[in-house]
Amino acid sequence: MNKREILREYFTGCNGWTLENIEQLKRAGFNNRFAEENCNLWEEIHRTLDPYVATLPPEIVQMQHDHYKHRKPFGEYYNIVAPTAVIQEVNNELNRLAKSIEQPERIKQVS
User: Fold this and answer.
1) CA-to-CA distance for 108 and 57, rounded, in angstroms?
2) Where on the tree of life does the source sit, at the highest rank (predicted)?
3) Taking Cα atoms as reference points, which of 80, 53, 77 lies closest to residue 63?
4) Which of 11, 10, 5 lies closest to 67, judged by CA?
5) Fewest beta carbons within 10 Å, which of 1, 57, 70, 91?
6) Could you tell me the pTM of the whole model?
């Protein structure tokens, strides 16, 4: 997965991987290594992004959701939700964090 795919899945919630679900799956056990790899990947994604996203104002989180789910350009939000520089800084940090997430080789090859 590339960083854009990670952020899209994270902000739209399409993956259904929440930390609670991950913990339940780990307790139940895995039936194959691919399920375990996916579980570990989404755990890493949440552990990397959740602390930063928790510091963001709700308007910026909603903006990210709208951007990734409804493809609304960030330009529509400049100087409305936050100053342009703030939005760009948030996007840069999210991209940096998404890029830093370690992925299994199998998942890297798919993207």
Assistant:
1) 32
2) Bacteria
3) 77
4) 11
5) 70
6) 0.85
